[in-house]
């Protein structure tokens, strides 16, 4: 296929996303107010608790078998690599731009976690149905492509709510503690200053403090701290980490849907009951597919409504936004080509153009929208997150089109 044909194939899905996103933004403006704040919140709950689990479970149940699991074993590692490299690059962005402490978790999260579910679920079927697609029969391509996208969404949700969630939570709690300490020190200093008589000098107040410290030094100078064994230190660190982590978020509805899809797909007796037109209770699978079909338009409309908040702006540094954009749309896709092609060369990935395309595309996606939910939950950079998402998703139309064209050329 020629480059222009590949560009046309890759641009159509992005244009569809832009049109539905624009409609969501239009419905969310105050003059229309069909998709206002409360409406988006309720619709988001329906998507989170109903549509997404149904979509993931139904598509995984259709496509997951023991053979496909063996073929797709590299995908969880590929997604983990995107999180690790993105976190490292996010830390570099923080060091270079000197971002405020309360944005550290947000910057690392935006660089680490891409939109591994919704964007792939929108893009992959659209690419399969385009005339001139290099992936063969559209129906077969859509079936397996949705399986890849659903697995990506499930794994991404696990990493997102176990890793990024706790990074943002710890970062926000650390910042709130620093604010409390600053407020306490200000209150203490003001109280001490109010206790000093107006006619006394500062030297008279300091001298007793110095003498008391000097008396205390000989008593504590030669005290030895008990040494803790290395294994006990590791045990204490792990216990502290488990206490700080919110493990309940690992079992989000999407994760439960993924587990259900794996059970149905991998257990032959259950699969025969649910999957296929001749299955005795195939109506359950058909109902799940019907509910899952509502996820894509609903999520895209919510995306458009949420991006509208970014137009109001915030005091975030432009260098921070630029750094995140460079990480997500330049550094990660280039490293992704090296990693996926290297895995293919060493036999870690089987020869499958659609599977390779999904693996490559996982490195070029905009930040996950759930990061905005996390920032709202902890009150850490909510307005800044809206601006970051606005610019990242506006530029995603160009970046995804160009990278999708290149990826199609590489795998075709």
Descriptive report:
- The chain is an all-alpha fold and 412 residues long.
- The protein has one domain (3-175, 240-411): Na+/H+ antiporter like fold.
- It is 77% helix and 0% strand.
- It has helices at residues 3-28, 37-63, 66-71, 74-97, 104-112, 118-129, 138-195, 202-220, 230-244, 253-266, 268-274, 282-292, 295-307, 318-345, 353-361, 370-378, 382-411.
- Helix 2 packs across helix 7 (138-195), helix 2 (37-63) runs parallel beside helix 10 and helix 5 (104-112) runs parallel beside helix 14 (318-345).
- The longest helix is centred in the middle third of the chain and has 58 residues, at 138-195.
- It comes from Fraxinus pennsylvanica.
- This is Auxin efflux carrier family protein.
- It holds the Pfam family Mem_trans.
Rg, nearest Å: 26 Å
Regions with little confidence, pLDDT below 50 for 5+ residues: 186-191, 193-223
| Count, helices | 17
Between the first and last Cα atoms, what is the distance in angstroms? 8 Å
Oligomeric description of these chains: single chain
* Shape by Cα distribution: globular
> What CATH architecture do you see?
Up-down Bundle
Q: What number of domains?
A: 1
Look at the helices and sheets and give the structural class. Answer: mainly alpha
Average pLDDT: 80
Q: What is this structure, in a nutshell?
A:
The protein has 412 residues and is an all-alpha fold. It contains 17 helices and no strands.
Any key phrases for this structure?
Na+/H+ antiporter like fold; endoplasmic reticulum; mainly alpha; transport; 412 residues
